[in-house]
Design brief:
By secondary structure, the protein is an alpha/beta fold. Helix content is 36%, strand content 13%.
Length: 166
């Protein structure tokens, strides 16, 4: 892998739950080898990260500092960080036509159910967010523990796609 961290962009429709959970978690466990970002294909006006996502992250000891909902358009600009890997984490975003990503990053789809649509009271919804975080964390633990040769440009797409079955 190059001297710089592997830049990973997590995409979802609104960038309020799953993609935010993935961004914060990878930045927490990435040990300087990864730099995570997240964005949405169509965040609502004044969209903010879901408060239950922020609560679950805080409860897990993962920093929520600087997390915000944003459009994927921010990452298609000339001065944006060049992504090495773009991962969709919801089925809606996976089916959308993505913008051009400078550097032609590897892509993968890791589908997760939307915890914000879980039925029940706040405690049950919080548990849905916690379960989603745990599922994301398991897959990200596998990614961060891949040997460096699996993270080379030619290999990262296949490795990320293989992890979608984990």
């Amino acid at each position: 892998m190059a001297e710089r961290p592997l830049n990973v962009l997590f995409l979802c429709t609104h960038n309020s739950a799953r993609s935010v959970l993935a961004e914060a978690t990878l930045n927490h466990i990435g040990r300087g080898r990864f730099q995570a970002f997240s964005a949405g294909s169509s965040p609502r006006e004044n969209q903010q990260p879901n408060p239950l996502a922020l609560k679950v992250l805080a409860n897990a000891g993962i920093s929520t500092e600087g997390l915000r909902s944003k459009s994927w358009d921010e990452f298609g600009k000339a001065d944006s960080p060049v992504m090495d890997l773009v991962i969709t984490v919801c089925d809606n975003a996976a089916g959308e036509v993505c913008p051009y990503w400078p550097g032609q990053p590897a892509t993968a789809h890791w589908g997760y159910a939307d915890p914000s649509e879980a039925p029940g009271d706040e405690a049950q919804k919080l548990e849905a967010f916690r379960q989603t975080l745990l599922t994301i964390r398991r897959r990200l633990d596998l990614l961060t523990n891949l040997p460096p040769d699996k993270l080379e440009r030619a290999m990262v797409q296949q490795a990320a796609r293989d992890l979608s079955r984990s």
